[in-house]
Fold this sequence. Notes:
Radius of gyration of chain A: 22 Å
Number of strands of chain B: 4
Strand order of the largest sheet of chain B: 1-4
Structural class of chain A: mainly alpha
Bound molecules: iron/sulfur cluster
Shape of chain A: globular
CATH topology of the domain at 39-102 in chain B: 3-methyladenine DNA Glycosylase II, Chain A, domain 3
Distance between the termini of chain A: 47 Å
Helix content of chain A: 55-70%
Largest interface: A-C, 42 and 75 residues
Shape of chain B: elongated
Distance between the termini of chain B: 82 Å
CATH class of the domain at 39-102 in chain B: Mainly Alpha
CATH superfamily of the domain at 39-102 in chain B: Electron transport complex subunit B, putative Fe-S cluster
Order of helices and strands of chain B: HHHHEHEEE
Oligomer: heterotrimer
Number of domains of chain A: 2
CATH architecture of the domain at 39-102 in chain B: Orthogonal Bundle
Helix content of chain B: 25-40%
Strand content of chain A: under 5%
Amino acid sequence: MSLMRITSPHAHSGQSTAKVMLQVAAATVPGVLALVVFFGPGVLVNIALCVATALACEAAVMKLRDRPVGFYLKDYSALVTALLLGIALPPYCPWWIPVIGSVSAILLAKQLYGGMGYNPFNPAMVGYVVLLISFPVEMTRWVAPAELIQGTPALGETFALIFGNMNVDGFTRATPLEIVRHNQSTILAQLYEMEPMFNKGSIAGLGWEMANFGFLLGGLFLLFRRLITWHAPVAMLVTLTALSVVFYDGGSSLSEGSPLLHLFSGATMLGAFFIVTDPVSGCTSNKGRLIFGAGVGLLVFVIRAWGAYPDAVAFAVLLMNFAAPFIDNYTLPRTYGHKAARKATDLEEQ
Amino acid sequence: MEWLSEVSTPLLILGGMALVFGALLGFAAVRFRVEGDPIVEQIDALLPQTQCGQCGHPGCRPYAEAIANGEAINRCPPGGQATINELANLLDVEPTPLDAEHGIEDVKKVAFIREAECIGCTKCIQACPVDAIVGAAKQMHTVIVDECTGCDLCVEPCPVDCIDMVPLETSLQEWRPNKPSDGVQLIASDRPELHTDDRSAA
Amino acid sequence: MSQVNERQSASERRAAREAHLIASEKARDLSRELKINDFHGGVHPPENKHQSTGEPIGSIPLAEDLIVPLNQHIGGTAIPLVKLGDMVLKGQKIAEADGLVSCPVHAPSSGKVVAIEPMAVPHPSGMVADCIQIRTDGRDEWCALTPLADYANRDIDDVLEKIRDCGIAGMGGAGFPTAVKLNPRGGAEIDTLIINGTECEPYITADDMLMREHASEIIGGVEILAHLLDQPERVLIGIEDNKPEAIEAMKKAAEGTRFHVVTFPTKYPSGGEKQLIEILTGREVPNEGLPANVGIVCQNVGTARAVFRAVTLGEPLISRITTVVGESLQRQRNIDVPLGTPIRHVLEQHGLDRKTLQRIIIGGPMMGYTIEDLSAPVVKTTNCILAPSKQELPAPPPAQACIRCGLCAEACPASLLPQQLYWYARAEDREKLQAYNLFDCIECGACSYVCPSSIPLVQYYRAAKGDIREARQEKEKADRARERFEYRKLRLEKAEQEKEAKRLARKKAAEEARKKREQEANSPEAQAAKQESDVVAAALARVKAKQATPEQQLARAQRTLTSAEHRVERMQKKLADAEEAQKPPLEAQLKTAELKLQEARDRLAEAEKQAAAADKTPEQKTVESSAEPSITEDKLTVAGASSSAAGAAIERAKAAAAARASMNPEEKLAQEIDALKKRVEKAEARLTKARNEDDPNTGAFETALEKMQGKLQEKLAQQSQSGSQD
Ligand code: SF4
Ligand code: SF4
Ligand code: SF4
Ligand code: SF4
């Protein structure tokens, strides 16, 4: 009998990457449910298409790179990427939108950089932005919540919309953020009363607020399981709130929207708990995460208020991904027994 | 005259910027100049100082000078690939595999004199480039292990062939675990050993 | 040396900083009753302490053989005091400390020394180290012990000497000689003594049980330690709050003393020296510094007890309490076991189930190491022997890529960024590793423990640390070699110059003398002198001729030649008859013979020439001999040109290296054989010469020749083998 010879530690917490990823996936369930309830089964089709394409892509790349396919698929990182992308895409978009999105997310943003752990940018967001820039029309047509249009597309219609050439225009309406952005003349209180999108909901637009609430719940679950730290999400949400308070302008016609609108509309909660917490492309230290999150919050507001795109989380996150190594460099923690933290670039001091 | 001001403003701005940045760069170049050792010193600092002559030069420093004058960097077997890589890094060239013409990388060795057989001829003392052998005429000689570079030059001159090159043993205190192999992340072509020159095995 | 100086100046600078720190600390301490601090990071692995605390500390039958390693501590290996076959008594010193930072070793039981040789020791490398093996006689007979009564009135150095003499080393794990630690030099004043009863590693309960059962001895030891440190202001005994019985016992024992028993929440690695110091005092041991730099000395409870027994009973450190635990054992408990007891013996006494066993860990699951050879003994630092089953501590799964989740950084008690260190360790970027403070890693394993990708982070760090240390050492050595090389060059140049100067001086003198002679050539004295010198020269020539007359030499040379010729002929015939397979060696022999023949011919020619020369008149000889000095001088200059023998050797090596290029193994072998042959010939020639001259080294030459011939045969055999393989 030969005894094992390995170095310490011999114990392990039992946590594994696969488990982390699966829990992240599970945490999206409330938000996805809300989306399905309000926007119909198109959401699920998107997700399914994304996941299938992403896994196929990942498997193909692993095969090409001569690596064990099963081992890598089982870390479920591709699954989570695809899931997040699927959630972010407008429901009932043509089938090739999720397919192209997943392919660029997995191939372009992840595997070209060396696979899991090596990607400098958040793959799901890269996929999203590629789509947004290439197909702005398809990407900006959001169907309205079921209540506003007498029911979301039925199953047959769903498939006609996605795989056929049925036009989705009959089902779409402006999103809450768009409504507020395009508003030039009405004060917010009036707008809230006029717009069915708002008066049927309560704070941030029918359907949207529930979806955001769902993602918030999922995020709290992740926090509770210690799978993410509070730093980045809290920093992002606080910055966003602060800026929207500053530019609320008393709810005038020029107001950029209430803090609640910003917090519970668009992809805010999804972004805060599922995107900016992506460890690979984010910052390393907690201090860095604070800065990273605050940066995302700032950019989200700036783009929402003064930019030309309907939502801003994807761009904000990608821009901050650029800055992450730089932030990391300046936010090294102080090592035990050292006088002060120092920058990673200070090599000479040694 | 209108066009003149239209052209001159940007020109002035651009020119001004060029001046300012030029001055800044110049200042930085003077202020933050890196005082480097002459290149030969830097190269010599990287060579293993075994002084064995396998590179074709009488000692490491001459080889450092030769490298500074453009000789290939892959001729020092005692330094091996690690030294080549460091040299490549310093000189900003591509690292090349060790030139087998000058010898192959071997485990670290030190000379050992079987003292009972030593006749005290002092021939090895004369050959040793780092004075690592002590002894006097007709007295037994011995090698100072800590100083011996393992250059092999003392073996040949010994008339009674009592010098052996023995591999340096790692002591319990110096031992360390190996760097873990990269497990499943690796594919065949990533494995480092395949990059080394194995012509001799062929 | 320079390193020591550097260290000292650094420590001086640090001392100033620390003094300031301590002053402010003191001011705060008085107003605030022992506040417990927290340290960054840490993990909560399952404690698994209940398995081994169910029974009181037990003991096992004495093993037949005790294997006592000479180095069970940090520092120099002890030097044996006993010989093979010696009878030793229990407690007798069998090896003496070597140097200041070292520890003596004592016999754990009485018996006979049966071996002093390298044997398996508990070490992660699985290498062997020098040990003394004692075959016990079962009598367990003590030698006379000399306690140090009334230590409080003794000189502190005496007490320290006693501790040192009893071989006490830190029993918490590292094994640093205790006497050295208690004698802090050049640091700040010690104001806090910390006794470490934390024992944060899962499974291990040795200190826990020790505190439960021997609290009073520990407190006695603490008293001695406090005395040795000149009664520091605070004496803190730190215990994690998961050991209520131990805390109870210690509090009771400490009643009436000024020692504080401090409890704090359980968290790994609060038992690490640096972490414990932070918990109890809020101070941080400075980077590259020692606890003494911040006025603290830290000792383990086991060490305190050992000190107590050493001083009051005179008992050396020959046994320790060790936890024997793991699901592969039928019985799990703590035992008081003599040092040197083979681990196999310990395990067998606890019902080891070999079927479920997969590894043996010395120490705990977080920082312990595995051993393969179960004959390795228990040593001073062995606090736990863990024999887990496969389910208990499963084998690690293959590592995945780092997802930079940052869990490791959260867990790291040194506030490092393990994921960055991992990255750079993989890339072997030594500069970056040091910039990220790799050397502040205490190898606690918390990062690997939490890593969801199961990356063996600590192993990367250990390997990287070793690499960097080695590189540093090599660099140092290379620098030294360069210095020596350069110095030698200088020396040789100087010698050369001196020689040159002397030569010139001689030449000048000779010139002058010649001139003088020419001037006085016709004087009668000169005539007489010339005649005299002629006579001397003739005598010299005669002597020379007598040594070996040219005729004799000629004859001998001819004899050699004939025999060589015969040999060649014989060989050729043999070769012709031989079968294919045997040919190569025969050919080689033939070649040797031919070479010999050639040599013999040369010799003959030489001898003939000499014989002819001998016919010359004595006058001619004189002329020749007077020409000789200048020849030697020429030789010298030649030597000077090649600068040194080393230069020549380098030339040779160069040529050899060039020749070795692009050769296949056979050619190489053939070349080696040739070289050997040449050396054999040289040796033969040398031997003949030595015989002729009655050299005292003749014997040595003979053995050398034999050896070389042996080598040659070996190579030839090798060649023939590879030849027949083709
Ligand atoms: S081969 Fe390397 S070690 Fe030997 S002399 Fe040349 S440079 Fe120095
Ligand atoms: S002792 Fe021999 S091998 Fe060692 S440095 Fe001197 S000559 Fe070289
Ligand atoms: S815990 Fe493991 S996977 Fe996570 S950042 Fe650290 S090394 Fe990477
Ligand atoms: S092993 Fe080193 S890097 Fe890892 S947690 Fe411990 S101190 Fe930090």
